[in-house]
Every structure is written in structure tokens, then in C-alpha cells.
């Protein structure tokens, strides 16, 4: 079998078209969704992601601003800035690009962002709401993955989903969202003993390990849905996933590529959350 490729870039383009129409309507009510991105330091990968976010926002009519701070910024200076952004009624969404320099504790920063402006969905209040299934901002990468599955009408209910990786921003929340959709979820990680055996049991396999091409055909059950969350930069500068795409696509029924898979969807869901934040903060229903 050769898998059907779920193209995250194409799906993103379609979703952005829909959002553009919605943003135009909000603008007629005098509401322009506004995202503020804070970038600390000059990590080249972070700079490139931030550019992608600004470009995507502009495409949908969402306004965005970028605050760039030096790598030497103190934690208290950053927390103070976040307080100002929390109080600024023209700012609907706040995103502090991760990772942060060592002198700044990420959890302090995440907890400082007002939960109603937390378009990353990283605040403990929003994570709690996600766990209990309340309406909230969903973390963008997991939200993008669920949206990709639904776009192909892939059934999640009753399926065995195996998540490889347990980060707070991808592994843990994607498992939770799959559980919310009534999947049976297994989490695997660096201490898992029989990774290959567990992975090969998955109907839906989520690879979020951070190691190029770690998941080869032997880890994949015939007909499985394979979602590749890896973004690994090779020495030649090209981008590749955690899944060995060429061998995996011969066994999978659906597969996501890297690039043009989960990455663009992450940004698209950030825009969705920004619109949600703008509507929520302005109490416009829709
Ligand atoms: N507070 C915070 N929120 C984030 O959402 C966040 C973050 N920090 N830190 C870093 C990660 C990573 N991330 C990506 C977003 C888009 C692509 C993306 O669009 N990738 C393109 C390729 C882009 C390229 O060529 O460099 C693709 O896969 O096709 C990748 C990675 C968001 N992150």
C-alpha cells in the first residue's frame, strides 16, 4: 500500500481562507484580532518560526506585532512586559516564543500570561480545562493534528493511538486530545522498554521524539495512520521528520510529511486561537 499524504500546507491554506472571511466580518464590528509575539534572544530557528507566524497572520488579516528582547533579558523584566500586555486591551493574544534563555524560568512566564490571552494553550488553567474537556485554547500542535485527522474523516473513536514523546507542548496534550476523542491511548518515551512492539500495535501513531528518521517501517502496523511531529534540521540545511517517510509510506494508510505537514498546521491553529481570544475578550458571539 502507498499511503495518502495529508498535506498540512494545503489544509492550512484552506483554513486560512475561511479565517480571512471571519476576520473581515469582525473588522466590520470594529474588532481586529491582534497577536503579540515576544522573542527573547536571537536563536535563528526561533526567528524563522516567528517570521512564519507574522506572515500567516497577515494573510488572514490578523494584525500582529513582534517585541524583540536581548538574550540577556531578566526574568523580572519579561514578567513585567507580560503584565503590560495582559493589561493592554488592544492585545488579544500573547505568545512568548520558546525556548527561553537559561536565566528565565519558562513556567513562570507561561503562568504570567493571562489565561484568556494564552493562544499557545500552555497555561495550567487552560491545560486543566483541556483535560476536563471544557472549551478553551488548545495547544496549537495537538489541535493541528486532530484537525488533520478530522479533515480526512479518520475515525479516532475506539482506535489505539500510540504517542511517542511526552513533552508538555506536544506529547502529553496530543494524547489527551485523542483520549477526549475516545481513542485508547498509550504513551511511550525514552524509558519505554518495548517501543517498537508498542508502536507496531498503533492504529494512529504520533511521532514526537526529536530524532531524525527514528521511526522506520518496522515500527508501523499495516494501514496505520502516521503523524510526524519531528522537525529535525539536517547538516545540509534541509528539514526532516522523526519518521522515515519513504519506508513508512509503504505501510501506512495516511501519513504526514515534513516539511508541509504538522508545522504549518501549528501556525494555523495559533491564528484560530487568536481569533477566539479576540472574540472572547470582546464578548462577540459567533
Ligand atoms: N511559544 C511557542 N509556541 C510555539 O508554537 C512554538 C514555540 N514557542 N517554539 C518553537 C515551536 C516550533 N514551532 C513551529 C511552527 C511552525 C513550523 C513550520 O511551519 N514548519 C514548516 C517549515 C518551516 C521551515 O522551513 O523552517 C513545515 O514543517 O513545513 C515549525 C515549527 C512552533 N513552536
From TrEMBL:
Similarity field: Belongs to the tetrahydrofolate dehydrogenase/cyclohydrolase family.
One term under GO cellular component: cytosol
This protein's UniProt keywords: Amino-acid biosynthesis, Histidine biosynthesis, Hydrolase, Methionine biosynthesis, Multifunctional enzyme, NADP, One-carbon metabolism, Oxidoreductase, Purine biosynthesis
Keyword Hydrolase: yes
Protein source organism: Oceanobacillus profundus
Name this protein carries in UniProt: Bifunctional protein FolD
Catalytic activity: (6R)-5,10-methylene-5,6,7,8-tetrahydrofolate + NADP(+) = (6R)-5,10-methenyltetrahydrofolate + NADPH; (6R)-5,10-methenyltetrahydrofolate + H2O = (6R)-10-formyltetrahydrofolate + H(+)
Chain's gene name: folD
CDD domains: NAD_bind_m-THF_DH_Cyclohyd
Residue ranges annotated for the Tetrahydrofolate dehydrogenase/cyclohydrolase NAD(P)-binding domain, each copy included: 139-279
Taxonomy of the source species: Bacteria, Bacillati, Bacillota, Bacilli, Bacillales
GO terms for biological process, alphabetical: L-histidine biosynthetic process; methionine biosynthetic process; purine nucleotide biosynthetic process; tetrahydrofolate interconversion
PANTHER family recorded: C-1-TETRAHYDROFOLATE SYNTHASE, CYTOPLASMIC (PTHR48099:SF5), C-1-TETRAHYDROFOLATE SYNTHASE, CYTOPLASMIC-RELATED (PTHR48099)
Gene Ontology molecular function: methenyltetrahydrofolate cyclohydrolase activity; methylenetetrahydrofolate dehydrogenase (NADP+) activity
Amino acid at each position: 500500500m502507498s499511503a495518502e499524504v495529508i498535506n498540512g500546507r494545503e489544509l492550512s491554506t484552506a483554513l486560512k481562507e475561511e479565517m480571512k472571511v471571519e476576520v473581515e466580518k469582525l473588522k466590520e464590528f470594529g474588532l481586529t484580532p491582534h497577536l503579540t509575539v515576544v522573542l527573547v534572544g536571537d536563536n535563528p530557528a526561533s526567528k524563522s518560526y516567528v517570521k512564519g507566524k507574522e506572515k500567516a497572520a497577515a494573510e488572514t488579516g490578523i494584525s500582529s506585532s513582534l517585541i524583540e528582547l536581548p538574550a540577556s533579558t531578566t526574568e523580572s523584566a519579561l514578567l513585567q512586559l507580560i503584565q503590560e500586555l495582559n493589561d493592554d486591551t488592544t492585545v488579544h493574544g500573547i505568545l512568548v516564543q520558546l525556548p527561553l534563555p537559561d536565566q528565565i524560568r519558562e513556567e513562570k512566564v507561561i503562568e504570567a500570561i493571562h489565561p484568556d490571552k494564552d493562544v499557545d494553550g500552555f497555561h495550567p488553567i487552560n491545560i486543566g480545562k483541556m483535560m476536563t474537556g471544557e472549551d478553551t485554547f488548545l495547544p496549537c500542535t495537538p489541535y493541528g493534528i486532530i484537525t488533520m485527522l478530522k479533515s480526512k474523516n479518520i475515525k479516532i473513536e475506539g482506535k489505539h493511538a500510540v504517542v511517542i514523546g511526552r513533552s508538555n507542548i506536544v506529547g502529553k496534550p496530543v494524547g489527551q486530545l485523542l483520549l477526549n476523542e475516545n481513542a485508547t491511548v498509550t504513551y511511550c518515551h525514552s524509558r519505554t522498554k518495548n517501543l517498537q512492539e508498542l508502536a507496531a500495535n498503533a492504529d494512529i501513531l504520533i511521532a514526537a521524539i526529536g530524532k531524525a528518521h527514528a521511526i522506520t517501517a518496522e515500527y508501523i502496523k499495516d494501514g496505520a495512520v502516521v503523524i510526524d511531529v519531528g522537525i529535525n534540521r539536517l547538516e545540509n540545511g534541509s528539514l526532516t521528520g522523526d519518521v522515515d517517510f519513504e519506508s513508512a509510506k509503504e505501510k501506512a494508510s495516511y501519513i504526514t510529511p515534513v516539511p508541509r505537514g504538522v508545522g504549518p498546521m501549528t501556525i494555523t491553529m495559533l491564528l484560530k486561537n487568536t481569533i477566539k481570544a479576540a472574540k472572547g475578550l470582546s464578548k462577540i458571539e459567533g
